[in-house]
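Hey all, sorry for the wall of text incoming. These are the two entities for the joint prediction.
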Amino acid sequence: MRFPTLSKSKSPLFKSPLSYFKSFSSSIPKSPLPFSSPSFRYLSSVPSTSTEKMSKDKSFDRSAMESILTKRFFYVPSFSIYGGVAGLYDYGPIGSALQQNLINIWRQHFVIEEDMLEIDGAIITPAEVLKTSGHVDKFTDLMSKDTVTLEVFRADHLVEAVLEARLESDLAARTAEAQISKDSANALSQKKQKGSKPPVKLSDDIVNEYNEILAKIDNYNKIELSEIITKHDIRNPATNNTLTPPVEFNLMFESFIGPTGTHKGYLRPETAQAQFVNFSRLLEFNNQKMPFASAMVGKSFRNEISPRSGLLRVREFNMAEVEHFVDPENKAHKKFSEVANIKVRLLAAKTQEKGSTELTEMTIGDAVAQKIIDNQTLGYFIGRIYLYLIKIGIDPEKLRFRQHMSNEMAHYACDCWDAEIKSSYGWIECVGCADRSAFDLTVHSKKTKEKLVVRENLETPLIYDAFVCNINKKVFGPTFKQNAKPIQDHLESLSQSELESLKQQLDSQNSVTIQLKDNSSYEITSNMMTIDKQTFKESVREYTPNVIEPSFGIGRILYSLLEHSFCVRPDAELRAVFKFNPVVAPFKVLVLPLSGHDSFQPFLLSVARSLRSKGVPARVDDAASASIGRRYARNDELGIPFAITVDFQTVSENTITLRERDSTSQVRGPIEDILNTCVELVNGVSTWSSISQKFQSVSPSTEE
Amino acid sequence: MRFPTLSKSKSPLFKSPLSYFKSFSSSIPKSPLPFSSPSFRYLSSVPSTSTEKMSKDKSFDRSAMESILTKRFFYVPSFSIYGGVAGLYDYGPIGSALQQNLINIWRQHFVIEEDMLEIDGAIITPAEVLKTSGHVDKFTDLMSKDTVTLEVFRADHLVEAVLEARLESDLAARTAEAQISKDSANALSQKKQKGSKPPVKLSDDIVNEYNEILAKIDNYNKIELSEIITKHDIRNPATNNTLTPPVEFNLMFESFIGPTGTHKGYLRPETAQAQFVNFSRLLEFNNQKMPFASAMVGKSFRNEISPRSGLLRVREFNMAEVEHFVDPENKAHKKFSEVANIKVRLLAAKTQEKGSTELTEMTIGDAVAQKIIDNQTLGYFIGRIYLYLIKIGIDPEKLRFRQHMSNEMAHYACDCWDAEIKSSYGWIECVGCADRSAFDLTVHSKKTKEKLVVRENLETPLIYDAFVCNINKKVFGPTFKQNAKPIQDHLESLSQSELESLKQQLDSQNSVTIQLKDNSSYEITSNMMTIDKQTFKESVREYTPNVIEPSFGIGRILYSLLEHSFCVRPDAELRAVFKFNPVVAPFKVLVLPLSGHDSFQPFLLSVARSLRSKGVPARVDDAASASIGRRYARNDELGIPFAITVDFQTVSENTITLRERDSTSQVRGPIEDILNTCVELVNGVSTWSSISQKFQSVSPSTEE
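and here's what came out:
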């Protein structure tokens, strides 16, 4: 994962390296800081995509979901008995299994099916490597401090929060004004009773200026942001103290390797570098064949200034990254036809440049044919990313591919698309897919002097003529002595046209005078050297591959999936359910007895054991104190897709019931048959509709 | 994983916390430092287990294996194009897949089959947590520096290497002496010609002293080690400079969380702490039922002073740890009968204390019955560890369980067994299995004031009588005013017998005088207070669970498995093969064409695709330039268990051949049948001997 940015400054001057080192987070919505209530943003006079990204899903009750996530230990702040640490989370049994399943499906979908070379590189990375890649100098965010309390803020976030709060207050004032003029002062006094600060109306000019700043908030450099803070008197809202001018803060965690305290290292901010530095070994492993892809799954680290938005902006996170190495002169993909007919929702750069966020639904084949997507390989990965996200349960209606605009794209990229998933936080970048050219291989190669190139035998050798100097060493050496080497170096540095003119001179005058860089001159005669035209034949082509990099933020995908899976049963108690599909569900089968009767126990154990031995995670809930209805409900909260109940008929007839979570419909059948069916359902070999005809349907337990 | 140690000092005085914070490494053999050639050690006059652990497998050619590991990119030093970093390794496609398979099988064997609660906690850990657990103060090794070059050494390793080199030199001198007296000076002069330093003979007393030091090398504290360095004039062998006295070096990587530079954190040295601090949530998730186990797989970090021995002592490594929480008063295990008949090789503490290293083969049932293994739960996990290691392919002849001796066991442990695997480095601790009592839960609870306990409803409530003070607040309060609270606190702190005697006094004299800690005295009269005997009923028992902790070093297991799987075909070319079983093998099936004929390509692609879609990693080797024999050979080096060949019969008859790696025998059958058979073989549903009868046997390709 590189550092995709949103709406970078439109000035080409700002395409400095800074722009491609913004953190993998800029498309995170501007979620409320503690002192700013959720708000919508005025439409700026210049419509911007970030406005669109802010639109929240109002129908979704995030706090209801979050209370279940915490109560059922999906994930919690790390070390919470010690007060917790911002931006660090511990995944409990459900979160951990969900994460593992997302990774396993990813491995099957990418590594195995695409025959990628997965590696597992070190987390601790020497400073030198990250200096070369640019991270040491450029992987920074801007930070301001409260001048009195010294509390630290990410400067752009603070400006944003303050301006949003002011705009919100202005909106309230305008609404109240309208109300007053319409139907007395009633509304205003009601508003005031809520205990919020009295709304402050702004001038129209200021509203426009604030909106313009918000639309460009990701783009400002240190000086610009400092000017905005001064001009608009941005302060710490909690203390009303002024702020220090923003300074760069490097987002990498620093440490020292070994006992001497001199060998500096960092925790990797991405998994990509380990793949680049191993390029030659990977190519060798692939029997020198191109194109090929490496892959890596693992933790990366970013020391965020002020982490927020739950799993969306954290200090430690799992990524899965692919580096697909490809011939820069041929980015066709041999399996492209397999994704060409997939329809995806695209938000192309051109559309955004027109100020629109309208999605275009089209096939990947058409998008590549029309050059909306730059090349087949990029298109192929967009298709595979789409298939992966749909497979795990992302709602296709809430998935779009947004192309980077030219002003937000890193200088090395010729095209970049983000898979953005919509949640209550807005459209979140969850997968980046960039064509990164040869940037990293080139810089590492330059730094280490190791060739990171492909050598390709040419089917038709390249044949060409060229002028060369043929030196008669017996005369040349003794004539020029210690100057022979510099003179020879100079001759070798000459271009073909310079050699040609030298040859004409030498041929006509039998002598030439050359001048070195230090202004010394030497006369070379034709008995010392001739310049001749020779024919050359090259049968090997050497090139630095380009890299196409699909990069997945597992935590962000996981969080989006939680929102897309969360729903409420439309019954009296509004019970919460996570509708995980069987492939991603942490536990696949719930096993429970109808009651606490002793005769059920051996069946529970043997059923659970049989499922587990077949690799099916099963949860037993035999708490005699809870009704079967309550036990169904509390396990619905864990998203368990199937439930097996052991009852008196099990004891007398050796049959069990199987319940499907979403429909709550149930069938009954012999134990062995039901268990085998479970394995099929869980592995996606069968579906509920296909199997429910095979068994006797039963009415749900009266207790449910 | 805790920090199991070997042969700690025999003095009970040394059972300070230091002893349980030795790094997870002490049973690593004393492998040669660059300046010390491989050596065997004299048998000490007091036989010691560490002597036995040193015995190397002389028949195994480690360098032959290592050259293949590097050439085929199993794993390599990280960032090697930048010169590499000691103790950091990148796993290539084979090493990475092998590691992933070991972890997947572990998850199936432990987490799913045993219904453990797997979590995924943060790597970055606040200093406060590791201060409580003892790591900040005690997780250290002793370090000495060359007084001139300032080169850094792990002090115990350096002493060991120097003494071993001196003993080796002594042995050479004694051998030479014996030779001279036997058959002229020939042998000695030959020895000298090898360019090694002239051997130096030591006195018998010195030899004995050195051997005694070596036997106890893991036990010395800072002062003792310093004395040894001085007394025996230990120097840096490379420079002959003296050394600084040893000082403690903390093995944790340090960093700062957030931008302020004040919130210190460390990279976790083990995964255990995240499980302990989440104990209450885990218990809640398990519906308050005991016993239960949590589990975690992930990277841990130890900033070793001088990493060595390849994957065996590294700075960053994957662990898999189980924390099984159990009632301290009942360590029976309900599934114990399932492992009771497993025979394991035990090296009990008693045997070692007699100076023997003889293994006892016995069933786990007998070992628990005879109290050799302390309890059923510990025995159950030893059985499960055994089954896991055998399942992945560890040679049972090279696996033993060694019990910690009382002098090497941490103070909280009542029993501890290491699964040790024999390789060319000697017996290596690969899994620790300790009964850790309530140590961690107690210290975290004390520090955070969070109760980390189990509350258990008692079936039979506990009924008992006790004396209590009943205070008449209306009189007591006004009488003592601001002193009422301290007096009441004092009364509440009294024991039952003190209360009883107070009651007698009060009943007989209608008044008592009590004295507080500050020596102030107060008279209490019977109108202010009565002391009465009351009956109490407790229906809840509260206790801190004990923890049984099986802890797996994945890298060490992986390395041991490589050695146990490495062999050489007894043919002319001595081709190397890794005999991975199908479950752990990185690639399961090799797909190759008989030759470069065009008609084979579509079959290759469809066979590979079909296997991959079924989750079977397949490698295609269609390099037309290499003979099929050469291609078999180079893929044997990757340990691929099965190979499918596409040949002219495939094109004409739709059949393919399937070759089994170890026997090199081959069968032929219709494509679909062979592919389905492959899936069965890979998943362990079928074996080669069972399937080879189903198909037509074919003679191996003449090219092989």
